[in-house]
Amino acid sequence: MVLEVIVDISTAEIDRPFDYEGDDVPLGSRVAVEFARRNTVGFVVGKKEKSDFPTLKRARYLDTPVNAEQLSLMNGMRSKYNLRHIDVLRLFVPAKLREERDPEFKRIFLTAADGMDEEAVAVALKRAPRQREALEFLKKSGGEYLSVLAERFGAGAVNGLREKGYAEESAVHETRVPLSTLSGERRKVTLTHDQQTAVDAITGGKGVFLLHGVTGSGKTEVYMTVIERMLAAGKTAIMLVPEIALTPQILGLFRARFGDLVALMHSGLNAGERYDEWKRLKDGSAKIAVGPRSAVFAPLENIGVIIIDEEHDSSYVSESNPRYDAKEVAKMRAAQCGAALVLGSATPDMESYLNATEGRYTLLTLKNRIAAYQLPEMEIVDMVQEFRYGNRSLFSEALRDAIGAALGRKEQVILFLNRRGFASFVMCKACGWVAKCEDCDVSLTYHKSENVLKCHCCGKRYHALAKCPVCGSTEIKQGKTGTEKVAEELKAMFPDARVLRMDNDTTSRKDSYFRILSEFAAGNADVLVGTQMIAKGHDFPNVTLVGILEADAALYFSDYRSSERTFQLITQVAGRAGRADKKGRVILQTYSPRHYVFRFGRTYDYEGFWRKEINTRMVTKFPPFTKVVRVLIAAEDEQQAVDSTRSIYRALLATEEKTGKFVYIGAARSPVTRMHGLTRYQVLMRLQPEVFERIMPEIYALTAEFKPQKGSCFAEINPQSLI
Ligand code: ADP
Ligand code: ZN
Ligand code: ZN
After folding, report:
1. Which of 552, 502, 509 is nearest to 527 (CA)?
2. Which residue's CA is minimally distant from atom 6 of ligand 1?
């Protein structure tokens, strides 16, 4: 039998099936093969009687990790997103199963060494970015197999770390069920009428359901009841949650309800743990896969329902290779399996709600918060007025008073600010020079605790500056990060308040994210100051006040989604206040109090907001009425980037003239003109939906033509950010 095998090597040149001689094994089987004098593994994607080649090497059968249904999903993804075979296959197969090629590496498991002097390490690895990345990864993941590390960061980097003693071998954990100690209490509830209607519709129907309900309206209860019914009918379930919302709380709830039938697929697990969870799903001992977007690839059979919580969340879109939208993949998979797809949100994506109002999805609404819980009252404070009255602080008077009152009642406070709006840059007051990353053309951020400047784009670190490199002035403004500034002002106003900070800087260490949240939940702090991270799904019954500082920060990005994002954010943050029996209050500070986002946001009027916003999108011809497509061209050689941008642009311009179905097309430098040492250009366009499917293959073909020595070229659909 001739087997068509995709070899586990990712380059454009060998991304096609190769013929091997082998037994008649199922499609999706993993085989050991020799390729270019290397031993590696491959995956069988086709079978035939005869090959055009006279002599074939043999493929040895190992196992069958991918089933036919997954293969067909894979093919759908490949044509939709123009992905390589092997890149998609790797999404379905845990890293540990791909180690056959280096048997001697197989059992070596590395962890970051204990008790390192962080500063010494930073100095030693100053000129070794790959090693730094690998070490960061080890710290975060808690360990990884040598072969996996070597593939990801290069063997040189990994060996460098071992030689310096920063990474060491360790016995592989034999833990079977990660986080199995977590358990929440199992509360017996009687579903409300709305909940019951939703459960009945989902379990009795087919297609896509949009479950719309504010935080605390009982969506999670609906999900769990639906899953329970599916299990009873002998089916399985996938539940996707935003990466950041995988809190002990939701895991605890699921464990309490379903015990070991739940498998967790999370990037925080090490390779061994991930493999174990994968295997429990594969062999049927676990029937519910819970995890971030990658859980959509779970090796389950007989899927009854796929649930996507917080369906509007941008983390469902993969923005690096392989690029895909897990929501669309879930839709394909659900359709393929005849499973129901449930999209849940307090603030559905514009397009999802449009689909629901036009009957393509079934709309299910949970109108009220459960019983006694009320939505907190939201107060809008005009910061322009505050400024006029001479208040130069980050806090309005109203917010300051409210914090004081809450602290006096021994209740907790959450202060939320938008990271992007607050990213502080380093500037010379004398000549206006701004410190930027050499590789990325983005301004550097000062980190007080480490006294360094960091590039948030590539992670590169720079010495803090004593004087301006251009004019020599010592008048350098080194701003603090937003949360630092807020925490400091807070300390000055309320010296006795116990303040916790949570942002990218305080949570870079493994577990610190969970730790900070647990500390706050346990009442070991009075105020939690944080960025986007605290906006998601946590339940703190003692929080009665939420302050939103700089609510506008997300509003003025030249992104058609700014208003939508801002509405989502304030609704979500507000959902943190008053979940239990205490009434909550939200104070939102803004410089544009009359903006419609806040007008509708104040009363949590999603529908009102949606109607206004969808109308704007229709008039201005933005998604969901068109598709935004960006072709990004990045190259070390500027001229090469310019030339290829020009030729791609010209080709597409011809298509636009032919079809007349482009709303817009333009070519320019990208907003961030350099990143990771590459010059970046882009061709940006908006296409009418009716030609989109037809034109994408042409765009993909154009991107494939550009093969710079150093650089890349790819197309993105409705990109989440346009930097
Ligand atoms: P959401 O997922 O929409 O934020 P949850 O499902 O977490 O809402 O419900 C919020 C709270 O209400 C939870 O503490 C949950 O246990 C409780 N709850 C949900 N449904 C009911 C019900 N039918 N009766 C009583 N309490 C409920
Ligand atoms: Zn200067
Ligand atoms: Zn950089």
Report:
1. 502
2. 218
- Least Cα distance to 691 among 648, 649, 655 occurs for 655
Cα of 462 from ligand 2 centre, angstroms: 17
Query: Residue 561 contacts by C-beta under 8 Å, 6 or more apart in sequence?
Result: none
Are 113 and 167 spatial neighbours (Cβ–Cβ below 8 Å)? Answer: yes
Residue 396 contacts residue 381 (beta carbons within 8 Å): yes
User: What average pLDDT score do residues 603-632 get?
Assistant: 94
> How far is the C-alpha of 530 from the C-alpha of 500, rounded, in Å?
8
Residue 448 has pLDDT above 50, yes or no: yes
Judge if the beta carbon of residue 327 lies within 6 A of ligand 1: no
Strand partners, 221: none
215 lines ligand 1 (CB under 6 A): yes
Looking at residue 284, the DSSP 8-state letter turns out to be: T
Ligand nearest to the CA of 440: 3
Query: What is d(CA 623, CA 352) in angstroms, rounded to the nearest whole number?
Result: 11
- The whole-angstrom separation of Cα 701 and Cα 667 is 18
Q: Does ligand 1 have an atom closer than 6 angstroms to the CB of 221?
A: yes
Using the mean position of ligand 1's atoms as its centre, give its distance from the Cα of residue 408 in Å.
29
First to last CA, the chain: 50
Q: Find tokens 């990466």 and name the residue.
A: 243
Supply the mean pLDDT for the chain: 85
**pLDDT tops 90 at residue 250:** no
Asked if 569 and 554 touch (Cβ cutoff 8 Å), the reply is yes
Residue from 191, 197, 211, 221 whose mutation best tests the ligand 1 pocket (most atoms within 8 A of CB): 221
Q: Tell me the CA–centroid distance for residue 436 and ligand 2, in Å.
A: 13
Which ligand 1 atom is the nearest neighbour of the CA of 187?
16
Give residue-wise pLDDT tens across range 273-316. Answer: 788 899 999 999 999 999 999 999 999 999 999 999 999 998 89
Within 13 Å of residue 479, how many CA atoms lie on the same side as its CB?
18
- What is the average pLDDT across 581-590? 86
Ligand 1 atom having least distance to the Cα of 217 = 3
DSSP reduced 3-state for 183 = coil
Does the Cβ of 249 fall within 6 Å of ligand 1? no
- pTM for the model: 0.81
pLDDT in tens, 707-719: 777 888 999 998 8
CB-based burial label for 560 (10 Å; 0-12, 13-18, 19+): buried
pLDDT band at 173 (very low <50, low <70, confident <90, very high): very low
Give the residue from 73, 90, 695 showing the smallest Cα distance to 331: 73
Ligand 3 centroid – CA 674 distance (Å): 9
Q: Which pLDDT does position 645 carry in this prediction?
A: 95
| Residue 687 and residue 715 in contact, taking contact as beta carbons nearer than 8 Å | no
Closest CA to ligand 1's atom 25 = 189
**Spatial CA neighbour of 343 closest among 315, 373, 305:** 305
**Quick one: which ligand is closest to 129's CA?**
3
Peptide bond between residue 322 and the one before it cis (omega within 30 degrees of 0): yes
Are 315 and 243 spatial neighbours (Cβ–Cβ below 8 Å)? yes
For the Cβ of 219 lying below 6 angstroms from any atom of ligand 1, the answer is yes
Does ligand 1 have an atom closer than 6 angstroms to the CB of 537?
A: no
Distance between Cα 192 and ligand 1 center (Å): 10
